[in-house]
Amino acid sequence: MQRLSTIGLFLATLVISTAAPLSVRHTAHSMPTLSLAHAVASAPLLQVQDRLGPHKQVVEFDQGNRFASTHTFNGTAGQSVSITLDSDDFDPVLILINAKGESIASNDDISPTNTNSRIDITLPGTEQYLLLVTSFEFEGQGSYRLAVLPQ
Asked: Do 117 and 109 meet the contact criterion of CB atoms below 8 Å apart?
């Protein structure tokens, strides 16, 4: 029985390290239990680390040209998501575009003291969405992190 417990803990550790976030519940006098359904439901729809700069495309935005990157993710009608765009190098601007090419949400600053971007939205349709990453500054460039997480 001890050997099975060790194998079970090893497999739990393996699953946790490869499929995080995963909920693990341990009660007194029992083996830990794993909730795979929770892990799948909370898995990121998109997670990217990239760099904005002259090697990317240029878009006209707010009366000027700016560097831009695009990323896509698949969403489901009625699905609530939180989209975050963070950078330590530039003031990021995030635009969510539907399959028809229409901008359905955008954000420049999370708050007056936080220049990163976040969009919390319930998706209107089951389709592929486009995220446009750009900078508030005309020449803004550098590293960024983009994530789309179910809420």
From this structure: yes
Q: Do 127 and 115 meet the contact criterion of CB atoms below 8 Å apart?
A: no
Say yes or no: 59 and 130 in one domain: yes
Q: Give me the number of domains the chain comprises.
A: 2
Do 30 and 84 belong to one domain?
no
Distances (CA, A) of 11 to 17, 36, 42, 84, 118: 10, 13, 20, 32, 36
Rounded to a whole number of angstroms, the CA Rg of the chain reads 20
The letter for the amino acid at 67 is F
Tell me the C-alpha distance between 89 and 61, whole Å.
Answer: 19
Where residue 119 sits, what CATH number does that domain have?
A: 2.60.120.380
Distance CA 129, CA 117 (A): 17
pLDDT tens-digit readout, 70-121: 999 999 999 999 999 999 999 999 999 999 999 999 999 999 999 999 999 9
The model's pTM = 0.72
- C-alpha–C-alpha distance, residues 3 and 21, integer Å: 26
CA terminus-to-terminus distance, the chain: 39
